[in-house]
Amino acid sequence: MPITPPPRTLSRLSLFKGFLQVFLPLLGVLVVVGMMHYYTVYATERSGRESSETLNVGLARRMINADISAVLSDLRFLVEHIQRQHVFEMSPQQLARLIGLEFQVFAEKKRLYDQIRFLDENGLEVVRVNFNGGNPRILPDEELQNKRNRYYFQQAIELSEGASYISPLDLNVEGGQIEYPLKPMMRFATPIFDRNGVKRGIILLNYLGERLIQNFTHAAANIADHTELVNQEGYWLSSPNPEDAWGFMLGRNTTFGKRYPAAWRIISSQQQGQFANPEGLFTFHTVHPVNSAASSDLPLLDQPLKFQSTSSRIWKIISRIPPSDIYSSLPGFLRQHLALYLAMFLLISFGSALLAYSHLRHRRAEAQSEYEKRFRHTLENIELAAVTLDRQGHIRFCNKHFLGLTGWNQNELVGSSWIERFVPKDATDQITDVLSAMGDPQEFPTLTETQVKTRNGELRLIAWNNTLSYNTEGEVIGVTGIGEDITEKRHAEEELHKLFQAVEQSPSIVMITNPMGEIEYVNPKFTEVTGYPAAEVMGQNPSVLKSGETSSDEYHSLWDAISDGGEWRGEFHNRRKNGELYWESAAISAIHNAAGEITHYLAVKEDITERKRLEAEVAERNRELAHAQTLAAMGRMASMIAHDLRNPLSSVKMTLQILGKQSGDNSDDSKESELRQIALDQIRYMEEILSDMLTYSRPDAIKPQWLSVEKIIDTAIGLAQKKIDTFKVDLHTFYQPGMPTVYADPNKLRQVFSNLIVNAAQATSCAEKPQIIIEVMIELGPRGTGLRIDICDNGCGIDPKIAAKLFDPFYTSRAQGTGLGLAIVKRIIEQHKGSIMLHNNEPQGACASIVLPTSFQSPEHSGDSQLEEEER
To answer: What is its EC number (predicted)?
Structure first.
C-alpha cells in the first residue's frame, strides 16, 4: 500500500515547484536569446566548412587521376621504347637480357612498380623484374611462371594495338594466398607488336597501390582523418580506421553501405554532391579510373590510348563529418560567452529561490500534521504488522495486526522497551546496533529479519521494511517498521532446500518436464550418465537421447499411461552425447497441482548398462556350456560308433577286396564285380561320415608353422583333382605378388581348401561351362594385415533363406553328406584366428572368402577340455 511521503519531502517539493514557477519562464527567455546568438555563429562556420570539404575532395580526385595517367604514360613509354629496338628480331636469350635490363633500370628509377613483366602470347613470363624492396632483381628462368589462366592476361592479350588494360585495385595474391604484409596492387597492361604488326605478348606493370593511396591521403591531408576511398560495392580501399580497409579480400562483410545505409543510397546514385543527415555531413565525388585515364594528357605517346577494364568499375571519395563535429562550434561559443550567460543564469536562479523559500515554513507545518494523520490511518488498516519506535527503542505505536500476532494489548505496549518485551536474549546486541544506526540514515538498514517473542514465549520470524521519521528540522526522531510473518514460509523453504539437495545428490537420474514434454530440470547424475550439460538440454525433448531401438508402440504406451495420471515403468536403450548406447530403467509419473491438473512429468531413471552386460554375459556362458555339453555327448556317440562300427566295416571292406582279387577279370562275373564295387563305395562313404563326426566332436590340436599359402592351395587342388575332373571344371588361380607367409597348420589348411574346392566343383553341376577361380591377395582390415583367399564358382549360388545355416553342424542342402564339412572348415579357420564368409558371386555362383592373419597369433589348440575329461 503506498505511503504518503514525509513532510520534509513535501516541503522541499513545494519549494522546488515555487522556484520553477519563477525560474523556468526567465530561463526560457535566456535560452532563446542564446540559441539565436549561437545559430548566427554556427551558420557562418558551417558554410566555410562545407566549401573546404568540397575543395579537398576535388583535390584528392585529381591526384588519383594524375597517378593513373602517369602509370599509363610509363607503360606506353616502355612499349614504344622496346618496339623501336626491334628486339623480336633477336635471339630469345638476347631479347630476354635486353628487356630485363630495360625493366631493371626502369624499376630502379621509378620505384613505383612491384613487378614489371613481359609475357609472350601464350602467357609465359619471358622477363620478370621484382622490385625486391628497392633492389630490383631479374628473375632466373626457373622462377618464371605461366599466367595464361589469370584474368588480367586473358583480357589484355585480346586488346588491339594501342589499347591498355587497367585492373581493379586489390591486394596482391601469390600462390593462391594474400601476400603479407598487405600489398595493394593495380595491374596495367598493353599488347606489344613486332615490326610486322604481329602481336608478341603483353607488357604488364604491377603498380604499388600503396603509392596511389598515400598520394590520395596527402592530397586530402586537411581532411584525412575523416576521408575514405571505397569501391563500387562500398568496401573500403582507404579509411582512417585501418581495420575497415580491404574487407572484400579479407572476408569481412562490413561496408560503407551497411554502416551508413541512408547516405550510401544517395552517394551510390549520384556522381558528386554534398548533403547532411543524422549520420553527419557527407561530401563525395566519383572516380572512374578508366575514363579519367583516357581523358588525361599523355605527351609522351605517339598515338591516343584506348582503355579496357573488367567492368565499368568506379571509386567513391567520401568525407564524413560526424554530427558531433558539425556542432563543434558550440563548445567554443560557450567558452567565449560563458561568463555573460553564467552571470545571467545565477541572477535568475537566486531571485527565483528567494521568492520560493518565503512560502516554505508555513506550508511545512501544515504538511507535517496531515502526513501523520494519514500515515497512522494507513498502518491501522493494513494486514501487516506495523510498529513505531523512538530513538531510544520505546514503542510509540503498534497496529491491531501486530497485537493479534503477539497476544498483547496496546495499552500494555505503548511506552515499553522493544528490546525487553520482544527481543530474545541472544539477539539483544544485534537489535541495539540497529537502533543506534538511526543516527546515520545512510547506514540504517531498510530491510531486516528478526525473531519476535509473543506473549506465550513463542518465537515468530518477521521480515521488516523500515522507514525513518523526521521532525521539521530534518532530524531523525524514530523508525516505523512494516513486517510480514515469514515463519511458515521460511520453514517451507528449508524443507524444499533439503529435498532439492537430496535430488541433486541422488544416485539415480531425475528429470522433470512440462506437459509438452520439454525438459525443465535434470540433476547432476543425468549429466554424469548422458554427457549432456543441463543447460544444453533445457527446453529440449527427451527424444534427444533416443537411439531408435525403442519402438513407437512403447512410446505410445508410455504417454497413454502418464497422460491419464498413472505411472509407467520400463527400460530404454538410449544414446549418450558421445554416441555410446546405454540401458536405463525408468519410472515415469505425472505431477498434479492442487486442482488435480497435470503440471509436470517426473522421471526417475537408473543406468542398468552394466547389469544388462552381466545378464548377456551369463546368457552367453550358458549357451557356451550347452554347446560344450552337446559336443561332449556327440563325442561319446562318435567314440561308440568308432568302436562298434569301424571294425565291422573294416572286415566287410577287406572281405570285398579279397573277393574282388579272387574273381580277377572274369567277364562272366561283371555284374557281381559291379555290385561289389558299389558296396565298397558305400563303405568308404560311411568311413568318411565317421571320420567327419570324430573330427568335429574331437578336433586335433593344430601344429602351426610358417608356410606359403600358395603351396598349400596348389596341394589342395591336387587332392581335389579327381572331383575337378569329374565335373569338368575349368580352374584358375591368381596370386598377388609379394605375399607374406602365415603361421598355420599345413594339414588343416589343406583340408579346408580341398573341402571348399570340392564343394565349389559340386556346385557347378548346374553351370553350362563349370569354372572355379581362386584369388589370393593382401587385405588391410581393422585387425591388421591379413591374407584374403576367395574361392568362387559359377554354379547356382546360395539361397538367402539357408545362408545363415550353412555353417551349422549336421545341416546340408545335398542329398548325401553329414553336414559337417563347412562346420569343420569354420572351426579350423577360427582356430587360426581367421574368419570365413559365404556370399553370392556376381553375376552367377557363390564365393567362400577366408581371411587369415599374417601377424603372429597363437592359434587355438583344439580339444575340448570338458570332452577330454569325460573321455578320461
So the answer is: 2.7.13.3
3-state secondary structure (DSSP) of residue 731 = strand
> Which is higher by pLDDT, 855 or 786?
786
Pairwise CA distance, residues 857 & 719, whole Å: 28
Mean pLDDT over the full length of the chain: 80
Q: Which one-letter DSSP state was computed for residue 470? A: E
To which residue does cell 550567460 refer?
Answer: 341
Class of residue 274 by CB neighbours under 10 A (exposed 0-12, middle 13-18, buried 19+): middle
Which residue is listed with cell 509436470? 600
pLDDT > 90? residue 863:
no
The beta-strand segments (E) located in 486-555 are: 509-513, 519-522
Could you give phi then psi for residue 550, rounded to 5 degrees? -95, 130
> Residue 513's closest CA among 528, 501, 526?
526
Find, among 860, 858, 808, 796, the residue nearest to 831 by Cα. 860
Task: Show the cell assigned to 315.
Answer: 571509386
Which of these, 67, 77, 85, 81, lies nearest to 299 by C-alpha position?
77
Q: What is the largest CA-CA distance in the chain?
A: 163
Cα separation values, 824 from 309, 697, 700, 713, 752, Å: 81, 9, 11, 18, 8
Between strands 125-130 and 476-485, the pairing is: unpaired
Alpha carbons 857 and 743: distance in angstroms, whole number = 8
Confidence of residue 310 (pLDDT cuts 50, 70, 90): very low
Q: What is the pLDDT of residue 11?
A: 57
Distance, in Å, from the CA atom of 849 to the CA atom of 793, rounded to the nearest integer, reads 12
Polymer length of the chain:
872
Amino acid at 730: D
- What is d(CA 63, CA 215) in angstroms, rounded to the nearest whole number? 7
Domains in the chain, please, with CATH?
71-208 (3.30.450.20), 363-491 (3.30.450.20), 506-607 (3.30.450.20), 614-689 (no CATH), 702-871 (3.30.565.10)
pLDDT of 207 > 50? The answer is yes
572 contact partners, CB below 8 Å, separation of at least 6: 545, 550, 583, 584, 586, 605
Over range 459-465, report the average pLDDT. Answer: 88
Q: State how far the Cα of 702 lies from the Cα of 861, in Å rounded to an integer.
A: 6
Judge whether residue 211 has pLDDT over 60. Answer: yes
Quick: pLDDT tens for 674-721.
Answer: 777 777 766 766 766 666 666 665 566 778 889 888 998 988 898 888
Which DSSP symbol is given to 414? T
In whole angstroms, what is the distance from residue 842 CA to residue 831 CA? 30
CB 270 within 8 A of CB 44: no
Could you report the per-residue pLDDT of 622-642, keeping only the tens digit for each?
877 776 676 666 666 666 665
Q: Are strands 137-138 and 567-575 parallel, antiparallel or unpaired?
A: unpaired
SS3 for 182? coil
User: Residue 694 has what pLDDT?
Assistant: 61
pLDDT at 328 over 80: no
pLDDT above 60: residue 861: no
